[in-house]
Amino acid sequence: MTQSRCDVLSCAEHERLAFELLEVRTRGQYLTRLRPLTREERAEWDRREQKALASLVDHELEHGCSS
Q1: Separation between Cα atoms, residue 16 and residue 52, nearest integer Å
Q2: pLDDT at residue 50 above 90?
Q3: Do the Cβ atoms of 59 and 16 come closer than 8 Å?
Q4: pTM for the full model?
């Protein structure tokens, strides 16, 4: 069974979005290990994480892919 070009592209996009979410989470974890975050830094980290997660979920809903 062959995949259509659209399926391959959407899976590549899914991987990119999943990596973006992982990167945001990892960066925040490293920062919290170095020092306590200010309220503003924590809010920014939360906002970036929520945005990355929302992008990934939107992609999954739109394209029906999960890997």
Answers
A1: 10
A2: yes
A3: no
A4: 0.78
